[in-house]
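Model: You mentioned two targets. I'll fold them one after the other.
Researcher: Yes, keep them separate.
Model: Target one:
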Amino acid sequence: MRNWQRLFNVLGMKEALEEVGFFRSVQEETIRTRQASEKRRDFLDLLLEAWAEDSDTTSASAKHVLTDKVMLAQCILFLLAGYGTAASTVVFSSHLLARNPKPQQRLRQELELVKEEGKLTYQGMPDIPGTNLHLKEGDLVQFPLWSFHHDPSYWPDPEQFRSDRFLSENKINIKNFTHMPFGMGPRNCLGEIMLAMRFALMETKVALAKLILAADLRIPPGHEDIDMESSPFLLRPKHGVYILLTPRKHE
């Protein structure tokens, strides 16, 4: 922490930003509420349990890592770290729905059916839908996920938008290790282990549901295809995504 404070001073950056103060007040209020109520077994409860265990350590040599600042940083990171991937998912999903009006309308009808008193709820949110190779220690393995996800031997008509592929009754047709958006096994996405993936998926579903209920999506002429930007981390459009939004008239 001291090294970070020195770096802040060298770069002339302020540690006590107004936005940090907002998150700190939310964290303190939420912790007080949690300590006076039942546990929810979520990310914050896990942090509080670890903090309690860390505080109970009486050994003089013990390192108390979970300070108030560290807990605040972890809570902010939980909220912010998934926004890039969630935003990419919303962008690509919106583009596909705009190119395919029939699935878009079907999704809108399903969302209208699950609304309770005109509002979307958490409970009502629908599911939007061996080799002989030997590796030596230290070998670097990289999975070509784009190739897997567009291979016609695993995905018939891979360039067609067919959301029915992921319906419950069709998942049996998906071969193991051919669909790995978050990786698999003990080295999969950390968010899947620490509940962050569930949070990211829910915020993605809410954003798409609100958008679909509020407007009709269409692709402007000349923007039917997306050029991808080469990136070692996130798949992103090279020149952005253009979609025409027409507000829907509600009865």
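Model: Target two:
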Amino acid sequence: MFYRVGWHARLAHKLLRLDSTRLAVLSRMAELPALHPESIALLERLKDEKMKPLVEVTPAEARRQREMFAKKYSTPVVDFEGTTRNVSICISDRKLPVRIYQPVSYPSSVRPALLVYFHGGGWTVGSIETHHSACASLAQLSSSAVASVGYRLAPEHKFPAAVEDALASVEWFADGNNRRLVGLPEDMNVGVGGDSGGGRLAAVVAHELHGKCRISFQVLIYPGVDATDSTDSHKRYENGPILTKETIAKFRSYFATEQCHTTNPRLSPILYKTFEEQPPCVLIIAECDPYHDESLAYGKRLEDAGVKVKVLILPGLIHAFFSNPGICKESCRTAYSFIAEFLKEHEQRV
């Protein structure tokens, strides 16, 4: 069942006790698609925990809030049976933290795929910990290995630091000798994935490492791929819920440099000149999300270039649902299972 906010404004007000600004948003949303009950539950939990709007807090406070919320509400949708290892990989003059999830549920005749994953958070918040449950669930449901990368964040590290870390980490895992060092098979298909800002990183990696190392697949969850913010869905949801026009601008200001303009494909991957020979892609899209339209447009560019694309649009879901499985349990299970089936297509038979 879906709640149409216009029909249930009184109920939503009772549940959320929104401030005047958010009540104005609620009124405008009466003409928008229905919100799923789990979306309403997520907004309710944010209110209960007195989570301040991201534009009103420092990056340090935003991180603290996000970590606290994840610790309390990110129960996995499925128990992970396997090994979890925290490692550091040497990238040029620095080390990056990585958490590797290696399930035991695949037969000896199969080499699982490896998903190198980048968490969301506007390149400013989020971490390996905030996305632990999502990555563990993906590994368990797909019988694939997942490597969650702790890339550098803004404002301490400006653009293109996150991009450089993403490129270097995938190149590292694409080398079978390196994988062997962290207990992974030398012969396995390697792909990239991420949600929101992490999805943007995955898309950039798929383009820029084409021809340099083999990337077998990409998993993009409501990716930010068009920094012009000019689509209709950006206008529809400029005031949220959760991800607002002001929040996007604020986070962008944290990592901005002179190179960080909207025509730079590293910020707007949809502007890469060619999409031919990109790896197969699965797209997870939340219906009630500013990134809805650009995610669809990105999938169309891939399809028009002859790339195999699978798309799942979740009605009534809002941005950030994917990393909150403790609240959006059924929606996350649906999305995780959809991705898991895609990952199984990239197993290798021994």
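Researcher: Noted. Anything on target two?
Model: The first strand starts at residue 82 and ends at 91.
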